[in-house]
Amino acid sequence: MSVTKRRLLFGFFLLLFILIGSGIVLYSMGWRINFDNFKIQKTGAISIRTSPRGVDIKINNKDYPDTSNIIQSETLITNLLPKTYKVEISKEGYQPYYKTTEVESSLVTRFLNVVLLPQKLKINPSILLKGNIFTDITNDSKNLLVGNTATKAEYLYNLNDASSTLNINGALNNLKKGTKIKKAAILPFNPAQLIIQDQGGLELFDTKELTYDNLIKITPIIWNRTGSTLFYIRKSDDPKGGLVLASFDLVFRNENILTTVPKSINTANLTDIKANGDGTIAFSENNGDLYLYSPNDKSTKKIGDAVKDFSFSPDSKKLAFLDRNGQINILFLKDFDGDIRKKAGDIIRFNLEDKDDVQAMEWYKDSYHLFVKFSDGFDFMEIDDRAPLNIYRFLDGNFSFVYSPDSNLFYFIDNSQLEQIDFNNL
Predict the structure, then answer these.
(1) In this structure, is the dihedral angle defined by the CA atoms of residues 152, 157, 162 and 166, taken in order, positive or negative?
(2) Rounded to whole angstroms, how far apart are CA atoms 254 and 235?
(3) Which fold has domain 124-425?
(4) Do domains 43-115 and 124-425 have the same CATH topology?
(5) Domain spans of the chain?
(6) What is the DSSP letter of 15?
(7) 118 closest CA partner among 316, 407, 395, 413
(8) Measured between alpha carbons, how far is residue 369 from residues 21, 276, 315, 347, 365 in Å?
(9) What backbone phi and psi angles, to 5 degrees, belong to 102?
């Protein structure tokens, strides 16, 4: 073989080596040929975490194994070209999950809060109640306050000892004749003690010691309890009048004035108040105007109108509020980098198919789903604004309900029977 041929042959194999080697390196780095547009693009991935595990995963009708386990909580599906994918997650005996999503180069698209509900949830009957509406529940779900809308009576139940049921009205009238309970709540660190608002003010009722003592000197106009702190609006100490937003530590029994309330609001208009774990407070007027107080800059601003229900998420990062037209709004109070990415101040709005029938809502423990109450039943809804919206019917009927994120138990009252759904055992 001549020198010229040997050189040409060497050059050919060197070029082939460079091309194959470069291709291997580019392939290992995630670069692929996209035959949809005949471009060389870097791939992305989809990460999936579900409850329960052991699911069937399909992406654009291609099956992928669920590789999650005790050590690895997620299934990572790699080498996906940048484009739109249809994701289907299913499990026998459960309602399926669907989502359409975009995969981008070098990025991981996340589905880390996928909750599949059984096609039929187990309902556990408990005890017969003398009331028909929930007033309060302890974090461990062992103590309940239940009201009777017909008799206006309040009952304290210990679910570990049903025989210990206490008629709060009867017990109070033995101590103070003519007491009328306007609102009640359980003291979180001592369920034998109740916070009672009567016609005279805010009192502390010890159901064991049978004592009834004043708790706050100036009666709040509206109040609520979050943890071991009361948050309320009351008249100002200033002789010129006005309202103040304040908190009261139930352990140390001291008050902290947070801010003055906008002068446009008067006592007759206030209807409800709720507080976040970080001290953010929302309160509403009877016309549906919703206000938000921020502890960071001590500002109070209006964030909604025609609002009939609102609730802070357990992770303290979101506020859900329900319009009177049935639209559910999710306000992000802080930057959120999860399955979806949102900035503080962003709002997702959900217009449900039967939005005119939405009555109330409450957060699920993962702060990524809501229990939504309709006149004929309850749905379990995600807050993921990537279509389609996954929303599951899990209970039929119109019941008073209460949910405890700490115990993950959902209670409802059906014909005076206390019923329970344990979401720990899906």
Answers:
(1) negative
(2) 17
(3) Methylamine Dehydrogenase; Chain H (2.130.10)
(4) no
(5) 3-30, 43-115, 124-425
(6) H
(7) 395
(8) 48, 17, 12, 15, 8
(9) -100, 135
Bond from prior residue into 239 cis (ω within 30 degrees of 0): no
Q: Token pair for residue 287? A: 């016309």
Taking the C-alpha atoms of residue 417 and residue 426, their distance in angstroms, rounded to an integer, is 22
* Residue 54 falls in which region: left (phi positive, over 0), alpha (psi -120 to 50) or beta: left
pLDDT tens for the chain, 426 residues long, are 676 766 655 555 555 555 454 444 444 445 455 556 556 678 899 999 999 999 999 999 999 999 999 889 999 999 999 999 999 999 999 999 999 999 999 899 999 999 999 999 999 998 999 999 999 999 999 999 999 999 999 999 999 887 789 999 999 999 988 889 999 999 999 999 999 999 888 999 999 999 999 999 888 999 999 999 999 999 999 888 899 999 999 999 999 999 999 999 988 999 999 999 999 999 999 999 999 999 999 999 999 999 999 999 999 999 999 999 899 999 999 999 989 999 999 999 999 887 789 999 999 999 999 999 999 999 999 999 999 999 999 999 999 999 999 999 999 999 999 999 999 977
**E strand spans, 138-264:** 143-147, 154-158, 166-167, 183-186, 193-197, 202-206, 211-216, 222-226, 229-235, 243-249, 254-260
Residue with tokens 């309850």: 378
Pull the structure tokens for residue 345. Answer: 């101040």
Chain-centre distance for alpha carbon 120: 22
Burial label for 170, CB within 10 Å (0-12, 13-18, 19+), is exposed
At 359, the amino acid letter reads: Q
Contact (Cβ atoms closer than 8 angstroms) between residue 228 and residue 189? yes
pTM: 0.90
122 touches 136 (CB < 8 A)? no
- Laid out side by side, the sheet with 222-226 consists of 222-226, 229-235, 243-249, 254-260
Other beta carbons less than 10 A from residue 6's beta carbon: 10
Phi (first) and psi of residue 66, to 5 degrees: -80, 110
How many whole angstroms separate alpha carbon 297 and alpha carbon 295? 6
Longest Cα separation, the chain = 120
Q: How is domain 43-115 classified at the CATH fold level? A: Immunoglobulin-like (2.60.40)
User: Look-up: residue for tokens 């002068």?
Assistant: 263
Alpha helix segments (H runs only) across 134-184: 168-175
Tokens of 166: 């206490």
- Look up tokens 């105007």; give the residue: 289
